């Protein structure tokens, strides 16, 4: 009597392990998505995490990048557990996979491969462009790589060669998509005012002009002691400056809160944070305005700043809201 070949433990446990890892990925990306959407730090997301979330690379099509990662982990989770909740992964009395188990193997591999490539590119951006350490991002890269490994060694493939062609196609599509999504839209206009960190790395460019109304409002805010607290990497801070325009933005009382920002005053910001949170009941975020002794979180239309500060000059503000240009 021929004894049936036993199933390797990694193939027995690959799907539960993938489901667990995908679940951890869901938790990880859900938290990052929440931080990005609310623009409020819970305290778990430290400096490096905040820098990443406020970088030009944290959004795709106007939505948080982490939201797409969350969707990918949910897909992996669903594919991993589908056979487990439908009667098992193998046909009873044999080691052959069921139809649903067999049908989900390749999608699991391709999804994990795409996620790993995307995560690898994001790790490159962290080290070469953003210059920050984000433990949540690193964890997601580890999860993706682990899922890819399990999708290869955890299934009884007839031949690993059958993964080469679809794997290459998926890799090429992923690489083209990543480069397309993060390719510079256009070169900076040399006349733009560039927003940089202390090392000279460019994060944004402001090219809007300052009209009479913008200039007079900026002068009024300065003369009345109004202060804007922000950070060079904050897109909403750049958008606020862009509403004033290149010339008027330089007249604002601006406090740079990022420790690696130009002319940083991070000590001043640390002293202000508890006062802001006590008075507003909200987490301190960028930008935050202090006008007539009151704190106002968030980017504000110039008409609102005029009203809050008691400005009575011309209000034919000419710059509509638009996202800041990124390198």
From TrEMBL:
Domain Vitamin K epoxide reductase as annotated: residue spans: 11-155
Keyword terms, alphabetized: Disulfide bond, Membrane, Oxidoreductase, Quinone, Redox-active center, Transmembrane, Transmembrane helix
InterPro entries hit by this protein: Thioredoxin-like_sf (IPR036249), VKOR (IPR012932), VKOR/LTO1 (IPR044698), VKOR_sf (IPR038354)
Compartment annotation: Membrane
Chief localization: membrane
The keyword Acetylation is assigned to this record: no
GO molecular function, one term: oxidoreductase activity
Family matches, as Pfam families: VKOR
Transmembrane parts of this sequence: 65-86, 106-126, 133-157, 163-183
Membrane topology, as annotated: Multi-pass membrane protein
One GO cellular component term noted in the UniProt record for this chain: membrane
UniProt cross-references to Gene3D superfamilies, sorted A to Z: Glutaredoxin, VKOR domain
Family: Belongs to the VKOR family.
UniProt name for this protein: Vitamin K epoxide reductase family protein
Organism of provenance: Romeriopsis navalis LEGE 11480
């Amino acid at each position: 009597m021929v004894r049936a070949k036993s199933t390797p433990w990694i193939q027995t446990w690959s799907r539960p392990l993938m489901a667990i890892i995908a679940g951890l990925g869901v938790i990880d990306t859900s938290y990052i998505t929440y931080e990005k959407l609310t623009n409020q730090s819970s305290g778990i997301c430290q400096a490096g995490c905040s820098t990443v979330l406020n970088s030009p690379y944290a959004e795709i099509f106007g939505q948080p990048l982490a939201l797409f990662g969350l969707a990918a982990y949910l897909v992996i989770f669903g594919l991993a557990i589908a056979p487990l909740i439908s009667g098992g992964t193998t046909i009873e009395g044999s080691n052959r996979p069921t139809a649903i188990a067999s049908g989900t193997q390749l999608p699991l591999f391709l999804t994990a491969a795409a996620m790993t490539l995307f995560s690898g590119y994001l790790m490159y951006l962290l080290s070469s462009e953003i210059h920050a350490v984000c433990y949540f991002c690193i964890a997601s890269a580890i999860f993706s790589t682990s899922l890819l490994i399990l999708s290869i060694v955890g299934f009884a493939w007839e031949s690993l060669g059958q993964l080469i062609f679809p794997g290459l196609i998926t890799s090429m599509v992923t690489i083209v998509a990543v480069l397309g999504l993060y390719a510079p839209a256009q070169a900076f206009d040399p006349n733009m005012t560039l927003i940089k960190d202390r090392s000279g790395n460019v994060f944004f460019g402001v090219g809007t002009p300052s009209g009479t109304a913008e200039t007079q409002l900026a002068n009024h805010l300065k003369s009345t002691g109004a202060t804007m607290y922000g950070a060079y990497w904050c897109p909403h801070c750049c958008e606020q400056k862009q509403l004033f325009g290149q010339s008027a933005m330089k007249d604002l009382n601006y406090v740079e809160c990022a420790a690696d920002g130009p002319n940083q005053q991070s000590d001043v910001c640390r002293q202000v944070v508890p006062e802001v949170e006590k008075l507003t009941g909200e987490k301190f975020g960028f930008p935050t305005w202090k006008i007539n002794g009151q704190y106002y979180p968030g980017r504000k239309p110039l008409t609102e700043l005029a009203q809050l500060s008691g400005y009575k000059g011309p209000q034919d503000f000419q710059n509509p809201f638009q996202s800041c240009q990124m390198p």
